[in-house]
Amino acid sequence: MLSVVANRRDLKDSTPVQGWASLSRRQSMNELQDLIDNNARWADAIKQEDPEFFAKLARQQTPEFLWIGCSDARVPANEIVGMLPGDLFVHRNVANVVLHTDLNCLSVIQYAVDVLKVKHILVTGHYGCGGVRASMQDRQFGLIDGWLRTIRDLYYENREVLAKLPTEEERVDRLCELNVIQQVANVGHTSIVQNAWHRGQSLSVHGCIYGIKDGRWKSLDVTISGFEQLPPQYRLRPQD
Fold first, then answer.
1. Considering 129, 133, 173, 176, which one is annotated as catalytic?
2. 53: domain range?
C-alpha cells in the first residue's frame, strides 16, 4: 500500500513538471519551425538557379580551401567569401586557435590535407574578437581561460608594442592580427602540413582577418608555402 501511495504521489507531483516540459517542447518546436521554413526557402532558391546542385553536392566534396575561423556568429565563413556549400571546408573555435593538443582541430586539418587535398588553409580572425579581448583582462571566465592561455601569452610577449597604441580597441584589434599570425605559424609547424610538403603537395597557409564593422575580409600578407619559410627549429624530417 505504501508503495502504491508513493507512486501516486510521485505521479501527482510530476504532473506540473511534465506540463512545463510539454510547453517548453512546443515553444522549441515553434522556434525550430522558423529555421525549417528558412531552410526550405533557401533550398528552393538554390534549386531554381541550379536544379542539379544538391545532386552534384551529394556525389562528392572537393573544396580547395580549409577555413579555420572563430566561432563568433557574426563571422559566417561561406557567406563572407561568397562561396557555396561544398566550396569551403570549415573548422571554427573560440578565437580561431590552433593548438597542438587539440585533436579536434588537428583531425580537421589532417582530413582536409590528406583526404580532400585542399590547396589553401585560411586562418581567419576578426577584429573585436571577444576571446582575444578576454585574454587581455584580469578577470576569470571559467573553463575558457585555459583555452585562451596561449593568446594571453602572446599578449604578454607583445605588451610593450601594444601599450604604445592609444586606445583599447586598437590594442585589441592589433592582438587579433598577431593571434592570426601566430596560428598560421602553428599550422605550418604541424607534421600534417609538413608531410604534405614532403610529398610535393601544393599547400599554402594564409593569415586573414575580417572586419565586422565593414564586412571586409583581407589578407594580412602572411603566407607559408614551404619549409624554407619555417625557422629551422620547427622543420621536421620526412618519416622513414
1. 129
2. 20-58
